[in-house]
Each structure stands twice: as C-alpha cells, then as structure tokens.
Amino acid sequence: MTPTLVRHHSYARTATPVDSGNRARDWAEIQERMLAPLYEAVYERLEVGGGTRLLSLGCGSGLALLIAAARGALVTGVDTDPERLALARARLLPGPGSDAGPPAGHPRLLDGDPSAAAPADGTPYNLLTAFTPIGCSSGDGEGLVDALRSAVPLAARGSTVVLTGWGPPERCATAPVLRVAGRLSDGSRAPSTGGWRPWSRDDLEEVAFRAGLNPDGSGRVACPFGYADMDSAVRGLLSTRLFDTAVRATDRNQVAKEVAEALHPHRRRDGTVWMPNVFRYLVCTT
Question: Methyltransferase type domain spans which residues (predicted)?
Fold first, then answer.
C-alpha cells in the first residue's frame, strides 16, 4: 500500500472552526494513509502474522491495526481520542445487528490509558507499537514515555516495542510547513504541549532509555505526502493536531491560510500537492 492522492474536498470547512469529529474524519480519510508505508515496512521486518499479539498505543482511526489484522495478528488498540477511536471501531468491528462475526484478529479497541488493555485471555502481548511519530510536538516524548510505562508490564519479557518519529529535517519536505505552527504559536499563552518544535536525531533513543527499553535496530521509510489539491492538503495537515497550539494562539482561518502559503512550493502544475518525507522507526526489546 502506498499513499494515494485523495479526492477533492470543499475548502469551506477550513475557513471556520470545525469540531473534533470532523477533524478525526479528515485524519482517517486524508492523512492517515500517508503513514501506510511505515506500518507495512515495520510489519514486514518483524514478520507480523498469526503468532503476533499486538498492542497499538495511540491507534487512532485504526489503519495500522487493520493491516496487522489482515496479516493474521491478534490486535488491540488504545487511544484517548474518542472520535478517532469511533472511526477505528467502524473499520474493524461488525456493526450493530450484523450477522458477521468478529473480523480476522478479533480486534479490541479501548478508550484511555494503556493499563486498561490487559489481554482478555491473560496471554501477554509480544509486540507493542507507537506509530504516532514523535519529535516535532512539545511534550510528545513525555506522553509516550508515560504510555510505555503503562503498557510494557502487559507484554512478555523480551517482547518487541516499535517507536516511530520524523526523519532528518533535510529529508522531510513537510518540515518548513510544520514551522508555521511554531511561528504562529510564539508568544502564545496557550499550553506548550502540542506546539511544534524542531526534532532531533536522538528523540527515539531518549524515549527508549527513559522507558527502560533496549534499542535493537532501526530503519527509515519513505512516506511521501500526496494530496489531490490544496484544500485536501490543508485539511489533512491540520488533522494531525500539530497545529492546535497555533490555532489557539491565532485562529483557524489564519493557520489554514499560512499553511496553504507554505505548501505552494510543493504544488504541481496539475494542482496536486506532493512532499517527499522520511520517517524513522526504532526497534526495542522489553
């Protein structure tokens, strides 16, 4: 699976504040698929399949779980965003009144802290994943450390843990666009958590060290961001939550306008928007 250009969406919703449910749907329909090459590369390297018992931290709207379940893994996902989690349930679980049984992998989707995700049958997990890339949002590493400290006791000794982050800024065409968030957030009285910051090469290792994990290899994956038009690009990027502090400091209209301006160098003659990016993953053991 590779990123695809999403269909045209009306720009009207970027011109006024939108509720978190609409933003979650923008994430699921536009942005989440951009990370599919990362999910697939990790699963291929770790030979995820019928013997895998996976716990996904920050599972979002469930695309990574769907891919793992299709490979035969038993999957559980936790997330604190109820709107994204509702979309994951719609993807992975049979609807009310359906005669269909649970899909492959018998997914479990839980709202809240990872400590609530104890395996239903008592058999520990053997793979933990954190596919929300850290490294460019203030406090994201801190939050991941806390989540790992809750989740690691649910895994067997020697289990695999995968952490993910942005690659080198010089290899991420999206980096200058993300700097808009930092510039618009300067001087804000809004909480710093969620605001943009420059990432560093040791972000993942720092999280692993603080969570008591043992690094055991890493890799890089190309994840280009491709959009059918400027409207979809703006909506997709705003759905990442990396611009939330900027929105609080100014307003959504201003953020959407400046993100669109920053995207202009990446707009092609046919109106599509294309940005090559590289993401990094770190494989650890418990």
Answer: 55-92
Torsions phi, psi for 38 (to 5 deg): -65, -45
Domain edges within the chain: 19-92+104-172+197-225+277-285
50 membership: H or E segment, kind and range: none
Between the CA of residue 280 and those of 10, 39, 95, 174, 259, what are the distances in Å?
A: 33, 11, 36, 15, 24
**For 20-76, how does the pLDDT look when each residue is reduced to its tens digit (9 = 90+)?**
678 999 999 999 999 999 999 999 999 999 999 999 999 999 999 999 999 999 999
The pTM is what? 0.87
Exposure letters 198-220 (e unless 16+ CB within 10 A, then b): ebeeebbbebbeebebeeeeeee
CA distance 88 to 184: 32
pLDDT (tens digit, 9 = 90+) per residue, 101-115?
A: 444 447 999 998 898
- Cα dist from 85 to 60, 93, 281, whole Å: 6, 11, 24
Find tokens 């997709």 and name the residue: 236
182 pLDDT more than 60 = yes
CATH of the domain spanning 19-92+104-172+197-225+277-285? 3.40.50.150
Does residue 223 sit in helix, strand or coil? coil
